[in-house]
Amino acid sequence: MSDGRPVNGQLKKFVFRGKSASNGDTRGEYLEIVIPELLSAGYSFYTWPSAPLLAWYLWTQRRHLRGLRVLELGCGTGLPGILAAKCGAHVTLTDSVALPRSLLHLSDCCEANGLVPGRDVHLLGLAWGLFLAEVHHLRPVDLLLASDCFYEPSQFEEVLSTVAYLLDGTDGRFLCAYQERSADWSIEALLKKWGLKGSLLDLDSLSESSGVDYRALIGDRSLHLLEIISV
């Protein structure tokens, strides 16, 4: 994976709306997140299609996010993690330690939304599958997040071994939005190997309860939301 060389940029806006249920207040809740995207060859400089789906799910659960210890893996532009931070979670955003330009761009994305790295959110470079001291210090975690981390089959085990390490001995969970790219790809054997259990979330039920049609987010893409826990 390359850090890429940024060329033309654009500002992408994501708007989340909902009803407030506190103290009889019927005014709508509103959150706007802006992501400065760079049209470059690097994967991490633009928002992948799975990220808005994960962010939408987190928005439907926003009242449960405050105070949670949240860690996003391979976050790219960090949309889901930024939303969680704006909803009151204690968030650490991570991406590949081998991509310093990507981490700098992630810092820009945070600052564009009024979040100061080191104060409001924490940023860290990680290498999946390598359990160095900085990884140990990330524990305990209540909620792990990732969007499209199951993109390169050669990295599936690195991702899941990292998830297993971070969730081991906790009640935490891993939420992953991903795009189905091949019916031949499967993580079932790896889940079993690393003591994990996965289940797909019912997006239709979530869409009905939230009043927001998730299909408008995903278009004709085959996107799913997977929850993984340690067993």
TrEMBL record:
SUPFAM superfamilies: S-adenosyl-L-methionine-dependent methyltransferases. The keyword Transferase applies. It comes from the Eukaryota. Pfam families: Methyltransf_16. GO terms for cellular component: cytoplasm; nucleus. InterPro entries: Methyltransf_16 (IPR019410), SAM-dependent_MTases_sf (IPR029063). One of its GO terms (molecular function) is methyltransferase activity. Keywords: Methyltransferase, S-adenosyl-L-methionine, Transferase. One of its GO terms (biological process) is methylation. Belongs to the methyltransferase superfamily. METTL23 family. PANTHER family: HEPATOCELLULAR CARCINOMA-ASSOCIATED ANTIGEN, HISTONE-ARGININE METHYLTRANSFERASE METTL23. This is Methyltransferase-like protein 23. It comes from Papilio xuthus (Asian swallowtail butterfly).
